[in-house]
Structure formats: C-alpha cells, structure tokens
Amino acid sequence: MEKFLTNIKYSTSDTKVLLVLLLTAAAANAQSFHAGGCPKPPVQEDFNITKYMGTWYEIEKLPAWFERGRCNQATYELQEDETVGVLNAEILPNGNINSIKGVAKVKNVTQPAILGVSFFIGAADAPYWVLATDYQSYALVYSCSHYLGLFHVDYAWILARTRALPEAVVCQLHDKLKNAGVDIKNLTASNQTSCDERK
Ligand SMILES: *[C@@H]1O[C@H](CO)[C@@H](O)[C@H](O)[C@H]1NC(C)=O
Ligand SMILES: *[C@@H]1O[C@H](CO)[C@@H](O)[C@H](O)[C@H]1NC(C)=O
Ligand SMILES: *[C@@H]1O[C@H](CO)[C@@H](O)[C@H](O)[C@H]1NC(C)=O
Ligand SMILES: *[C@@H]1O[C@H](CO)[C@@H](O)[C@H](O)[C@H]1NC(C)=O
Predict the structure, then answer these.
(1) What is the C-alpha separation between 10 and 59, in angstroms, rounded?
(2) What pLDDT digit, counting tens, does each position of 98-138 carry?
(3) Ligand 3 centroid vs 16 CA: distance in angstroms?
(4) I need a surface site. Which of 3, 5, 62, 67 has the fewest CB within 10 A?
(5) Domains in the chain, start-ordered, CATH in brackets?
C-alpha cells in the first residue's frame, strides 16, 4: 500500500483504473482524502532540527493505515551526514512491539521545517512538515500528498515530549490546522495509557 501510494504519481497509463483502485484503498483504510490540491500551511519559523531530535509521543492523529497499535512514539536522531534517523514504535493489540526505521531529510536548507521521510528503500519520500513546535513540549506535523492533480491524502500528528498534553495546547494546534484549511473532523486521540506494562 505504501509503495502503491507513493509510486502512483509516476504512472502514466490507465489513470482511471488507478484512481478507482486508490480511492477504494483510501476509503477502505479510512484515510483522509479530499478533492483538489494540498493545503499549504505555514511551517515553524527558524526551525532548529537539533532541538527537535529525541523522542516524541503521539497525542492525536488523522487516521493512518500504517499505524495499528497504541503507545505510538517516534525517536529522531541526527546522523553525521545531516539526515535524521527515524524509529517509529507502537504496541500492537497482541502486545508485541512493532517498529520501523526510516530516514528523514531537509529538502531545501532555506526551509528547514520541511522534511521528506522514507521507510522503504527506493520509495519516494513522504512529506513531513513541522508546522509548530516549542521543542520541549509539543509539535504539530503535517503530511499531504497530491495525486494525479485531482485529490489529496493527508495525515497530521500532534506530538508531545510526554504522554499527555494540556487541552489548551491541543486546542491551539487544532486551530492552526483549521486555519490552514486542513479538515480535522477525524482527528482522534492516541492511547498512551499503560504503555510501560506489556502484556
Ligand atoms: C472521517 O471518517 C469517516 C469514517 O471513517 C469517513 O467516512 C470520512 O470520509 C472521514 N472524513 C474525512 C474528512 O476524512
Ligand atoms: C540549534 O540548537 C542547538 C541546540 O540547542 C544550538 O546549539 C544551535 O546553536 C542552534 N542553532 C541555531 C542556528 O540557532
Ligand atoms: C531552495 O529554495 C530556494 C528559495 O525558495 C530556491 O531558490 C532554490 O532553488 C531551492 N533549492 C533547491 C535545491 O531546490
Ligand atoms: C488504552 O489501552 C489500554 C491497554 O490496552 C486499555 O486498557 C485502555 O482501555 C485503552 N484506553 C482507551 C481510551 O481506549
């Protein structure tokens, strides 16, 4: 599915079949897909990637088919070549830990808060935009891909340095997304309870 989603824009033949397949896949996986192009939200000014490194816990998200568990967290580590090592982890319903490694890169040094992240060798990278962060408590991340010039699929994550965030901060981040034209109806709270005691 990830490969399918990321590679579809390179396909030139039989657009209609692909579109139907993709819409079906998106609907089946309850993704947030919408007609038209991606919103272009402002990103965090003077983003300092060094301060952003370390562990972040997922507080809320738009539905993401590739996340199936609870206690979702991401750990970022700056590498010597200035890319970012990514380790995403979650606890699956059966109690096992599911983790995946990836690499993120700043696309253009003039816009350091706009990164691309890739989890599969050879796959196109997915956008990773840091819309807001204070580095020490919260972060708001947005990812939107535009397909075939017709529609877009987007993801958003509210992250925190701890497993909970004050409601007021969450509300401010909702407002940021709304003001940028992102549909936040389907934002859901992530389960960050009983994370240290595995079954
Ligand atoms: C929200 O989720 C519902 C149920 O999965 C889905 O039918 C709807 O299209 C989603 N809305 C948006 C804006 O993504
Ligand atoms: C980014 O943050 C690091 C760690 O706090 C600091 O050493 C560095 O000077 C900052 N970079 C800029 C450009 O402010
Ligand atoms: C980076 O962004 C600047 C300013 O928008 C642009 O002029 C430049 O061409 C970009 N560089 C690359 C490698 O895309
Ligand atoms: C979160 O997960 C724990 C452990 O599986 C469970 O006991 C709890 O009911 C869940 N909370 C919610 C709100 O789903």
Answers:
(1) 34
(2) 999 999 999 999 999 999 999 887 778 999 999 999 999 99
(3) 34
(4) 3
(5) 2-189 (2.40.128.20)
